Amino acid sequence: xxxxxxxxxxxxxxxxxxxxxxxxxxxxxxxxxxxxxxxxxxxxxxxxxxxxxxxxxxxxxxxxxxxxxxxxxxxxxxxxxxxxxxxxxxxxxxxxxxxxxxxxxxxxxxxxxxxxxxxxxxxxxxxxxxxxxxxxxxxxxxxxxxxxxxxxxxxxxxxxxxxxxxxxxxxxxxxxxxxxxxxxxxxxxxxxxxxxxxxxxxxxxxxxx
Amino acid sequence: xxxxxxxxxxxxxxxxxxxxxxxxxxxxxxxxxxxxxxxxxxxxxxxxxxxxxxxxxxxxxxxxxxxxxxxxxxxxxxxxxxxxxxxxxxxxxxxxxxxxxxxxxxxxxxxxxxx
Lengths: 209, 115
Prior knowledge:
The complex is a heterodimer of chains A (209) and B (115). By secondary structure, chain A is mainly alpha-helical.
Protein backbone atom coordinates (compact mmCIF):
# COMPACT_ATOMS: atom_id res chain seq x y z
CA UNK A 1 0.00 0.00 0.00
CA UNK A 2 1.02 3.64 -0.48
CA UNK A 3 2.03 5.87 2.37
CA UNK A 4 -1.03 6.64 4.50
CA UNK A 5 -2.59 10.09 4.22
CA UNK A 6 -3.24 12.38 7.19
CA UNK A 7 -6.92 11.37 7.18
CA UNK A 8 -6.01 7.69 7.22
CA UNK A 9 -3.62 8.24 10.14
CA UNK A 10 -6.45 9.98 12.01
CA UNK A 11 -8.65 6.95 11.27
CA UNK A 12 -6.00 4.59 12.73
CA UNK A 13 -5.71 6.80 15.82
CA UNK A 14 -9.50 6.78 16.25
CA UNK A 15 -9.69 2.98 15.98
CA UNK A 16 -7.07 2.68 18.71
CA UNK A 17 -8.96 5.16 20.88
CA UNK A 18 -12.15 3.14 20.35
CA UNK A 19 -10.56 -0.07 21.62
CA UNK A 20 -9.53 1.75 24.80
CA UNK A 21 -6.05 3.10 24.12
CA UNK A 22 -6.65 6.40 25.80
CA UNK A 23 -3.28 7.95 26.53
CA UNK A 24 -1.84 9.99 23.70
CA UNK A 25 1.80 9.02 24.20
CA UNK A 26 1.09 5.30 23.76
CA UNK A 27 -1.43 5.94 20.97
CA UNK A 28 1.16 7.89 18.98
CA UNK A 29 3.51 4.91 19.13
CA UNK A 30 0.78 2.37 18.39
CA UNK A 31 -0.58 4.49 15.53
CA UNK A 32 2.85 4.56 13.92
CA UNK A 33 3.24 0.80 14.46
CA UNK A 34 -0.18 0.02 12.98
CA UNK A 35 0.25 2.49 10.09
CA UNK A 36 3.64 1.04 9.14
CA UNK A 37 2.22 -2.48 9.28
CA UNK A 38 -0.81 -1.49 7.16
CA UNK A 39 1.41 0.25 4.60
CA UNK A 40 3.17 -3.07 4.12
CA UNK A 41 -0.04 -4.85 3.11
CA UNK A 42 -1.64 -4.70 -0.34
CA UNK A 43 -5.33 -3.88 -0.68
CA UNK A 44 -7.82 -1.29 0.52
CA UNK A 45 -7.00 0.80 3.59
CA UNK A 46 -10.37 0.35 5.32
CA UNK A 47 -10.22 -3.42 5.07
CA UNK A 48 -6.57 -3.58 6.11
CA UNK A 49 -7.21 -1.37 9.12
CA UNK A 50 -10.14 -3.50 10.26
CA UNK A 51 -8.09 -6.67 9.75
CA UNK A 52 -5.12 -5.24 11.65
CA UNK A 53 -7.25 -4.18 14.62
CA UNK A 54 -9.10 -7.51 14.66
CA UNK A 55 -5.87 -9.54 14.60
CA UNK A 56 -3.94 -7.40 17.09
CA UNK A 57 -6.64 -6.16 19.46
CA UNK A 58 -5.64 -8.54 22.24
CA UNK A 59 -1.94 -7.67 22.03
CA UNK A 60 -2.66 -3.94 21.83
CA UNK A 61 -4.86 -4.07 24.91
CA UNK A 62 -2.33 -6.20 26.78
CA UNK A 63 0.38 -3.73 25.87
CA UNK A 64 -1.78 -0.83 27.04
CA UNK A 65 -2.53 -2.46 30.40
CA UNK A 66 1.18 -3.01 30.99
CA UNK A 67 1.87 0.53 29.90
CA UNK A 68 -0.61 1.91 32.45
CA UNK A 69 1.05 -0.06 35.25
CA UNK A 70 4.50 1.15 34.17
CA UNK A 71 3.21 4.73 33.97
CA UNK A 72 1.91 4.51 37.56
CA UNK A 73 5.23 3.17 38.81
CA UNK A 74 7.11 5.83 36.87
CA UNK A 75 4.86 8.59 38.29
CA UNK A 76 5.28 7.35 41.87
CA UNK A 77 9.07 7.07 41.43
CA UNK A 78 9.30 10.59 40.05
CA UNK A 79 7.23 11.94 42.91
CA UNK A 80 9.49 10.16 45.40
CA UNK A 81 12.57 11.62 43.69
CA UNK A 82 11.01 15.09 43.97
CA UNK A 83 10.26 14.54 47.65
CA UNK A 84 13.89 13.86 48.47
CA UNK A 85 15.07 16.92 46.55
CA UNK A 86 16.38 20.24 47.90
CA UNK A 87 13.43 22.06 46.35
CA UNK A 88 11.07 19.96 48.47
CA UNK A 89 13.10 20.78 51.57
CA UNK A 90 12.79 24.51 50.78
CA UNK A 91 9.01 24.16 50.37
CA UNK A 92 8.81 22.19 53.62
CA UNK A 93 10.71 24.88 55.54
CA UNK A 94 8.46 27.61 54.11
CA UNK A 95 5.24 25.68 54.84
CA UNK A 96 6.47 24.84 58.34
CA UNK A 97 7.07 28.54 58.97
CA UNK A 98 3.51 29.33 57.87
CA UNK A 99 2.04 26.51 59.96
CA UNK A 100 4.10 27.65 62.94
CA UNK A 101 2.88 31.24 62.52
CA UNK A 102 -0.72 30.01 62.44
CA UNK A 103 -0.07 27.91 65.56
CA UNK A 104 1.35 30.91 67.42
CA UNK A 105 -1.57 33.07 66.32
CA UNK A 106 -4.53 30.70 66.85
CA UNK A 107 -3.27 27.63 68.68
CA UNK A 108 -2.98 23.93 67.85
CA UNK A 109 -6.69 23.12 67.54
CA UNK A 110 -7.29 25.81 64.92
CA UNK A 111 -4.13 24.85 63.03
CA UNK A 112 -5.31 21.22 62.93
CA UNK A 113 -8.72 22.33 61.61
CA UNK A 114 -7.15 24.47 58.90
CA UNK A 115 -4.93 21.51 57.96
CA UNK A 116 -8.02 19.33 57.66
CA UNK A 117 -9.75 21.86 55.38
CA UNK A 118 -6.61 22.08 53.22
CA UNK A 119 -6.47 18.26 53.08
CA UNK A 120 -10.12 18.00 52.04
CA UNK A 121 -9.50 20.58 49.31
CA UNK A 122 -6.47 18.72 47.97
CA UNK A 123 -8.21 15.32 48.07
CA UNK A 124 -11.26 16.83 46.30
CA UNK A 125 -9.02 18.15 43.54
CA UNK A 126 -7.48 14.66 43.18
CA UNK A 127 -10.84 12.92 42.91
CA UNK A 128 -12.30 15.49 40.53
CA UNK A 129 -9.20 15.06 38.38
CA UNK A 130 -9.42 11.24 38.47
CA UNK A 131 -13.11 11.50 37.54
CA UNK A 132 -12.21 13.80 34.66
CA UNK A 133 -9.61 11.33 33.36
CA UNK A 134 -12.08 8.44 33.49
CA UNK A 135 -15.06 10.14 31.94
CA UNK A 136 -13.58 12.71 29.59
CA UNK A 137 -13.39 12.17 25.84
CA UNK A 138 -10.15 14.14 25.72
CA UNK A 139 -7.69 12.58 23.32
CA UNK A 140 -4.72 14.51 24.66
CA UNK A 141 -4.02 12.85 28.00
CA UNK A 142 -0.51 11.68 28.85
CA UNK A 143 0.03 8.43 30.70
CA UNK A 144 2.56 9.19 33.42
CA UNK A 145 1.02 12.57 34.26
CA UNK A 146 -2.51 11.19 34.44
CA UNK A 147 -1.53 8.07 36.38
CA UNK A 148 0.13 10.23 39.05
CA UNK A 149 -3.09 11.01 40.93
CA UNK A 150 -4.59 7.49 40.94
CA UNK A 151 -1.26 5.96 41.93
CA UNK A 152 -0.87 8.09 45.06
CA UNK A 153 -4.51 8.90 45.91
CA UNK A 154 -4.68 6.14 48.56
CA UNK A 155 -1.56 7.37 50.35
CA UNK A 156 -2.74 10.98 50.04
CA UNK A 157 -6.06 10.04 51.68
CA UNK A 158 -4.43 8.09 54.52
CA UNK A 159 -2.01 10.94 55.21
CA UNK A 160 -4.83 13.36 55.92
CA UNK A 161 -7.76 11.53 57.46
CA UNK A 162 -6.81 8.48 59.56
CA UNK A 163 -3.30 9.73 60.30
CA UNK A 164 -4.48 13.19 61.43
CA UNK A 165 -6.93 11.63 63.90
CA UNK A 166 -4.13 9.47 65.28
CA UNK A 167 -1.61 12.30 65.51
CA UNK A 168 -4.08 14.66 67.17
CA UNK A 169 -4.67 12.25 70.07
CA UNK A 170 -1.06 11.13 70.37
CA UNK A 171 0.98 12.52 73.24
CA UNK A 172 3.78 14.02 71.20
CA UNK A 173 5.20 17.54 71.15
CA UNK A 174 3.34 20.29 69.29
CA UNK A 175 6.32 20.89 67.02
CA UNK A 176 6.14 17.28 65.79
CA UNK A 177 2.45 17.71 65.06
CA UNK A 178 3.21 20.94 63.21
CA UNK A 179 5.91 19.12 61.24
CA UNK A 180 3.37 16.49 60.21
CA UNK A 181 0.94 19.17 58.97
CA UNK A 182 3.72 20.94 57.09
CA UNK A 183 5.01 17.70 55.56
CA UNK A 184 1.60 16.61 54.25
CA UNK A 185 0.87 20.05 52.75
CA UNK A 186 4.34 20.09 51.14
CA UNK A 187 3.69 16.57 49.83
CA UNK A 188 0.55 17.83 48.08
CA UNK A 189 2.45 20.79 46.66
CA UNK A 190 5.10 18.34 45.37
CA UNK A 191 2.34 16.33 43.65
CA UNK A 192 1.16 19.52 41.94
CA UNK A 193 4.68 20.38 40.78
CA UNK A 194 5.32 16.83 39.55
CA UNK A 195 2.06 16.85 37.58
CA UNK A 196 2.92 20.22 36.02
CA UNK A 197 6.42 19.05 35.13
CA UNK A 198 5.16 15.83 33.52
CA UNK A 199 2.45 17.60 31.50
CA UNK A 200 4.95 20.17 30.19
CA UNK A 201 7.51 17.46 29.43
CA UNK A 202 5.09 15.33 27.41
CA UNK A 203 3.57 18.31 25.58
CA UNK A 204 7.04 19.32 24.50
CA UNK A 205 8.09 15.77 23.53
CA UNK A 206 4.99 15.07 21.45
CA UNK A 207 4.68 18.59 20.08
CA UNK A 208 1.19 19.09 21.49
CA UNK A 209 0.02 22.64 22.20
CA UNK B 1 6.72 -14.65 20.64
CA UNK B 2 7.91 -18.12 19.65
CA UNK B 3 9.18 -20.23 22.59
CA UNK B 4 8.35 -17.25 24.72
CA UNK B 5 9.74 -18.62 27.98
CA UNK B 6 13.17 -19.13 26.41
CA UNK B 7 13.27 -15.83 24.58
CA UNK B 8 11.55 -13.64 27.19
CA UNK B 9 14.58 -13.31 29.43
CA UNK B 10 16.73 -12.22 26.50
CA UNK B 11 14.36 -9.71 24.92
CA UNK B 12 15.98 -6.65 26.52
CA UNK B 13 19.43 -7.80 25.42
CA UNK B 14 18.15 -8.42 21.87
CA UNK B 15 16.73 -4.89 21.74
CA UNK B 16 19.89 -3.34 23.16
CA UNK B 17 22.10 -5.28 20.76
CA UNK B 18 20.03 -4.10 17.77
CA UNK B 19 20.20 -0.50 18.95
CA UNK B 20 23.93 -0.79 19.46
CA UNK B 21 24.31 -1.92 15.85
CA UNK B 22 21.77 0.40 14.23
CA UNK B 23 22.06 3.62 16.22
CA UNK B 24 18.39 4.46 16.60
CA UNK B 25 15.28 2.46 15.74
CA UNK B 26 11.51 2.63 16.14
CA UNK B 27 9.30 -0.17 17.46
CA UNK B 28 8.03 -1.63 14.20
CA UNK B 29 11.54 -1.53 12.74
CA UNK B 30 12.84 -3.62 15.66
CA UNK B 31 10.17 -6.29 15.14
CA UNK B 32 10.96 -6.48 11.41
CA UNK B 33 14.71 -6.58 11.97
CA UNK B 34 14.36 -9.48 14.42
CA UNK B 35 12.09 -11.30 11.98
CA UNK B 36 14.62 -10.78 9.20
CA UNK B 37 17.66 -11.89 11.19
CA UNK B 38 15.92 -15.01 12.50
CA UNK B 39 14.36 -15.74 9.08
CA UNK B 40 10.87 -15.40 10.55
CA UNK B 41 11.54 -17.77 13.44
CA UNK B 42 11.20 -15.09 16.12
CA UNK B 43 8.24 -12.77 16.03
CA UNK B 44 8.20 -10.08 18.72
CA UNK B 45 4.67 -8.91 19.45
CA UNK B 46 3.69 -5.37 20.45
CA UNK B 47 2.65 -6.71 23.85
CA UNK B 48 6.21 -7.86 24.51
CA UNK B 49 8.20 -5.19 22.69
CA UNK B 50 6.78 -1.91 23.94
CA UNK B 51 6.70 -2.71 27.68
CA UNK B 52 10.34 -3.81 27.32
CA UNK B 53 11.29 -0.59 25.49
CA UNK B 54 9.48 1.55 28.06
CA UNK B 55 11.13 -0.29 30.94
CA UNK B 56 14.58 0.23 29.39
CA UNK B 57 13.73 3.90 28.89
CA UNK B 58 12.57 4.24 32.52
CA UNK B 59 15.80 2.57 33.69
CA UNK B 60 17.77 5.21 31.82
CA UNK B 61 19.26 2.82 29.23
CA UNK B 62 17.36 4.30 26.29
CA UNK B 63 16.83 7.82 25.07
CA UNK B 64 13.85 8.88 22.98
CA UNK B 65 13.53 11.16 19.96
CA UNK B 66 10.13 11.99 18.50
CA UNK B 67 9.96 13.09 14.87
CA UNK B 68 7.25 13.71 12.34
CA UNK B 69 7.57 11.10 9.60
CA UNK B 70 5.04 10.27 6.86
CA UNK B 71 2.08 12.25 8.31
CA UNK B 72 2.56 10.90 11.82
CA UNK B 73 4.81 11.14 14.85
CA UNK B 74 7.43 8.43 15.23
CA UNK B 75 9.24 7.56 18.45
CA UNK B 76 12.86 6.52 17.97
CA UNK B 77 14.89 4.79 20.63
CA UNK B 78 18.65 4.95 21.03
CA UNK B 79 21.09 3.78 23.70
CA UNK B 80 22.23 6.22 26.34
CA UNK B 81 25.81 6.14 27.60
CA UNK B 82 24.84 3.87 30.49
CA UNK B 83 22.76 1.80 28.05
CA UNK B 84 25.82 1.23 25.86
CA UNK B 85 27.84 0.02 28.88
CA UNK B 86 24.94 -2.15 30.03
CA UNK B 87 24.68 -3.71 26.56
CA UNK B 88 28.31 -4.87 26.75
CA UNK B 89 27.67 -6.46 30.17
CA UNK B 90 24.42 -8.11 29.12
CA UNK B 91 25.90 -9.49 25.91
CA UNK B 92 28.82 -10.97 27.83
CA UNK B 93 26.36 -12.50 30.28
CA UNK B 94 24.22 -13.87 27.46
CA UNK B 95 27.22 -15.37 25.67
CA UNK B 96 28.29 -17.09 28.87
CA UNK B 97 24.75 -18.37 29.35
CA UNK B 98 24.68 -19.76 25.80
CA UNK B 99 28.08 -21.44 26.34
CA UNK B 100 26.88 -23.05 29.56
CA UNK B 101 23.63 -24.19 27.98
CA UNK B 102 25.57 -25.61 25.04
CA UNK B 103 27.77 -27.57 27.44
CA UNK B 104 24.77 -28.84 29.35
CA UNK B 105 22.66 -29.76 26.37
CA UNK B 106 25.44 -31.13 24.25
CA UNK B 107 28.33 -32.06 26.57
CA UNK B 108 31.76 -32.68 25.06
CA UNK B 109 32.89 -36.32 25.44
CA UNK B 110 35.12 -36.95 28.46
CA UNK B 111 38.62 -37.72 27.07
CA UNK B 112 39.41 -39.91 30.11
CA UNK B 113 36.70 -42.34 29.11
CA UNK B 114 37.78 -42.59 25.49
CA UNK B 115 40.17 -45.18 24.06
